[in-house]
Amino acid sequence: MPEDSFQLAENKVVTMTALAASRLIERGDGDAALLYIYIINNGGRFSRRNAASALKMTEARLNGAVAVLAETGLLSRKEVPEQEKRLQSADELPQYNAREILDAVKEDRAFSQLVGEVSATLGKTPSSGDMQKLFGIYDHLGLPPEVILTLVAYCMEEYKRRYGEGRLPTMRFIESVAFTWEREGIVTLRAAEDYMRRSMERNTVLSQMRRELGLWQRQPTLTERKYLDRWADMGHSPDAVALAYDRTVGQTGRLSWQYMDRILTSWHSQGLHTAKEAERGDKRPEKKTVSGNTGEKRAKPDAKELERMKKVLEEIKNG
C-alpha cells in the first residue's frame, strides 16, 4: 500500500522543548500530551473547567492528565507568574466575577451538582461570597467534587467537636482546611476517607481524655484544647492522662495543666505512653531507710567484743 504524505494546514507554530516532547512520548499518554499542547498554546496557564470544555474531556480524564504531567515534571502548581504572586497570597483563592461563576453553574454539570450537594449538607443556600470560595476550591485548588463533599463533612464534624452542637462551619474555615488538604496531597477520595478515619480515631482519644479529666460536660478552652492535642500528638493513651492527672492532684491538690504537661512530656521522652508503661518504667525512688532499721538480722557480738564494750561503759560510769 502506498504511503500518504501530509503537511500542516497552517503555519502557526507552537513550540515545545525537546525534553518535554521526549517525556510525553516516553509516557505515551494521549490526554496528557493534548493537555500540554493546550497549556502552552494558552500562554502557560489553564483552569480545569476551561481545559475540560475545550478538550472535550471528562473531569476524570482531565484529572488523570494533570496527574501525569505533574509526575513527569512538566506541570507544577508552584510556577505562578510574578504578577499573580503579588496579587494573591499563599493561602488565598483568586477572585472570580459573577459571570464566571454563573457560567460554571450552567455549563459545568459536576460543579452544579456540587453546589446542590454542599447546600443540602450545610442546610443553607450559599451566599455570593460562599460561591466564590467553593468555586475557587473546585477550580483553583482542583479538588474533585467527591473530595470537596468529604471535606465539608469533615469540617462539620470538626466544628461540632470544637464549638458544640448546632454550629455550622463557615466557608472561610472550609477554605482553610481545603488548602491544608491540597498541600498534604489529600486530593483523592481514598486519601480523604483515610484522613477522615484517622481523624475520627483521634477525636475518640481526645473525648476519652476529656472524660478522664472531668471535662465531658463542657467544651475545653483554647488553652486546654492545645494541651489535649499536644498529648494526643505525643501518642499518650487516655489512661496515661488519667494517671498523670491523679499524680498531679496528689502533688498540687488541683488540676494543673502545666504540671500534668511536665509529667506527660517526661514520660514521652522515656517512651512511656500508657498507664501500664508509666507505672512500670517511671517508678518513684523509694525512701532510704536509716541504717540499723532495715529489719535485717545482724551477727551477735563475740566474747572479746562484749568485754571491750563493758570497759567502755565502766569508763563512762566512772567519769
| Most strands sheet | none
Report strand %.
under 5%
Q: Roughly what is the average pLDDT, rounded to an integer?
A: 81
Distance between the termini: 139 Å
Order of helices and strands: HHHHHHHHHHHHHHHH
Per DSSP E runs of 2 or more residues, the count of β-strands stands at 0
Give helix % range: 55-70%
Q: What are the segments in which pLDDT stays under 50 over at least 5 consecutive residues?
A: 78-89, 285-297
| Alpha-beta content class | mainly alpha
Globular, elongated, flat, extended or rod-shaped: what is the shape?
elongated
| Total of DSSP H or I helical runs spanning 4+ residues | 16
- Rg from alpha-carbon coordinates: 35 Å
Tally of individual domains: 3
Condensed summary:
This protein is an all-alpha fold.
Would you kindly provide a written description of the structure presented here, covering whatever features stand out?
With 319 residues, this protein is mostly helical. The chain has 3 domains: 18-79; 81-187, no CATH class; 208-283, Arc Repressor Mutant, subunit A (Orthogonal Bundle), CATH 1.10.10. 64% of the residues lie in helices and 0% in strands. Residues 78-89 and 285-297 have low confidence and may be disordered.
